[in-house]
Amino acid sequence: MIFLKTDEEIELLRDSNLLLGKTLAELAKVIAPGVTTKQLDKIAYEYICDNGGTPSCLGYEGYPATLCTSVNEQVVHGIPSDDVVLKEGDIISVDTCVLKNGFHSDSAYTFPVGEIAPETMALLRTTKEALYKGIEQAVAGHRMGDVSATIQDYCEKRGYSVVREFVGHGIGRDMHEAPEVPNYGRKGNGIVLKSGMVLAIEPMICLGRRNLIFQNDGWTTRTVDRKPAAHYELSVAVRNGKADILSTFQYIEEVLKERFI
Ligand code: MF3
Ligand code: CO
């Protein structure tokens, strides 16, 4: 069952996403060599709680943290730890969900830690571009396959591979709602998109091969070939003519610009 959201509900979702975007910006301020992923988790937990939200990954199916922090070859659902110390040249995907006003928001951003290899920077750039290209297709009357195939083609043409085991999803009063939003597929296939659908679109893209394995904690997944993977996610409302992006990277990118330019 796909829940179409009213205009009022979409504004509540936007507000939840605003808190999430500002939370990720707090992390952008501190991500650097020497910082542990556990420290990031604590900052996010406190920021969300201090600003009227609830961290919705914490306790979800037993997940033990506010953030998913996936470093280098880790793809998604890395668990924050005192033992994971970021170092120059790493990349870290930070993915989290916030519950506010009764609605969940979901967004992820992959950050470079200091200077990273040019080929890894190109992976990050392409993954984020693919997300925005996919979002351009998320308009009423298009099909899900138009979103999926656009992301897949954009990445594969540039020599990257697309993760299949995890997909984007509808989002609203539940963190994961129908429909699924795969990052691979065929144009013209899949459900017809309708105004009021809210989708979390989240390409997970690999520098090498797309095959994944779970680490021993039962959550963290990494690439089999141990090459890096990138992950960016935005929640968007399907509309007539143009998608309405409810999450925001604006606050993150303002911080990154100030720090690094
Ligand atoms: N944004 C993640 C997802 O859509 C949220 C995971 S919460 C967790 O899969 F508890 F599963 F980690
Ligand atoms: Co998600």
Low-pLDDT ranges: none
Based on secondary structure, the structural category is alpha+beta
Major sheet: 5 strands, antiparallel
What is the strand arrangement across the widest sheet?
A: 8-7-9-14-15
Instruction: List the helices and strands in order.
Output: HHEEEEEHHEEEEEEEEEEH
The residue-averaged pLDDT reads 98
Number of helices: 5
Multimeric state? single chain
Shape: globular
Gyration radius over CA: 17 Å
Distance between the termini: 46 Å
- How many strand elements? 15
Written overview of the protein:
- The protein has 5 helices and 15 strands.
- The protein is an alpha+beta fold.
- Helix 1 packs across helix 2.
- The relative contact order is 0.19.
- Bound molecules: 2-amino-4-trifluoromethylsulfanyl-butyric acid (MF3) and cobalt (II) ion.
Keywords:
single chain, 261 residues, alpha+beta, five-stranded antiparallel β-sheet, four-stranded antiparallel β-sheet, 5 helices, 31% helix, 23% strand, globular, binds 2-amino-4-trifluoromethylsulfanyl-butyric acid, binds cobalt (II) ion
Short description:
This protein is of the alpha+beta class. It has helices at residues 7-30, 37-50, 118-136, 144-156, 250-260; strands at 54-55, 68-71, 74-76, 91-100, 103-112, 161-162, 168-170, 177-181, 198-201, 204-206, 212-214, 221-223, 229-231, 234-237, 244-245.
